[in-house]
Structures are given as structure tokens and as C-alpha cells.
Amino acid sequence: MRFIPVIVIAFFMSVCCPFSLQAQNPEARLKELGIELRIPTEPANIKLASRVGQVVYLSGQGPLLPNGELMIGKVGEEVDVEQAKEAARLTAIALLAALKGEIGDLNKVKKIVKVLGMVNAVPSFTEHIPVMNAFSEVMVEVFGPEGKHARSAIGLGSLPRNIPIEIEMIVELKAE
Questions:
Q1: Alpha-carbon distance 26 to 100, whole Å?
Q2: Exposed, middle or buried: residue 2 (CB in 10 Å: 0-12, 13-18, 19+)?
């Protein structure tokens, strides 16, 4: 049996299986992906994230544009599927920012457990799953296999401020 040096295996894993090594450091992955998190300020009467033991429940968030405004519009009218996918990605970033604001360091995350995605769509819209897949892809890009989660995707007739998507999330933290 031939011996393969550990450094060669590590290099192979980083090239062929990028999440095997980088998933251990979501903060570094965010930098590699060019994602900057802006920690939000808490509203007066609710929490953006509520921690119970090793579980964090994140309030529903919407797509926050780089200029600080919310993306608005009903999917299937003012917002097409590609724009809705971008809204899901922006919402993923907003949720990560709220999570980081609560726990301080995303390296404390053990697993993304459950996600509920609500799409503000016309009654005939049926592409909820592809829209939510854009959100799920961000979680896997940042956390690797630990970013895979249980998920529900539903369509609604309206959402607050006419945002196209709202997502809430449940996260398990590593034992301290």
C-alpha cells in the first residue's frame, strides 16, 4: 500500500471538495465569496434572533439591497423568477447578518436546521422551489454540508411592505 502525504490529500480535498475544508470556517467563506455582513439594529419591540440554549430562532427577514432599502414587488408581476432568486440570496445575507449580530461569530454554527420561505406571488406562480433553492445555495456555500437544512416554501398573497420574499431560519450552535 502506498503512502499519500497528508498535504496532498488536503490539497486534493480543497480543490475537488471545497466545502470539506472551508466549511469549517464560514467567516472565511464569506470573505472568499465577497459577502460583507452589515449587522442590523434591533427593532424596538422584537428580536431579530432569539437564542434558547444551543438553538437560535431568526425572525423573518426580507431582501435588503446594498443601498439599505428593501427590494419590493410581487413575484409574477413586478418581479420575475431571476429577480426573486436574487431576493432570496439577499435575504440569506440579511439572515446571516442577524445571526452574526446575535452570536458574534458564524464559526459557532453547528447546523442550519430549518428554513421557512414565504414568497409574495400571484396565484398562478408555481416556481417557489427554484426561488428558495437560491437561498439554500448560499447556506451551503457558506457552511458546507452543515448548511443543508429542512425547508418549507409557500406562496402568499402579500408580505409586509410588499417585499417579494420573507424567510425565517432555525440554527443549532456548537456546544460551548
A1: 11
A2: exposed
- In a domain? residue 127: yes
70-93 confidence digits (pLDDT tens): 999 999 999 999 999 999 999 999
Whole-angstrom distance, CA of residue 158 vs CA of residue 3: 60
Under 8 Å between Cβ of 71 and 166: no
Give the chain's length: 176
Q: Tell whether 1 is covered by a domain.
A: no
162: phi then psi, degrees, rounded to nearest 5: 65, 30
Under DSSP, is residue 151 helix (H, G, I), strand (E, B) or coil?
Answer: strand
Q: Taking a C-beta distance cutoff of 8 angstroms, is the pair 65, 90 a contact?
A: yes
pTM over 0.90: no
Angle at 33 between CA 97 and CA 82, to 5 degrees: 80
- CATH code, 105: 3.30.1330.40
User: In this structure, is residue 132 part of a structural domain?
Assistant: yes
* Alpha-helical runs (H) found in 39-104: 81-103
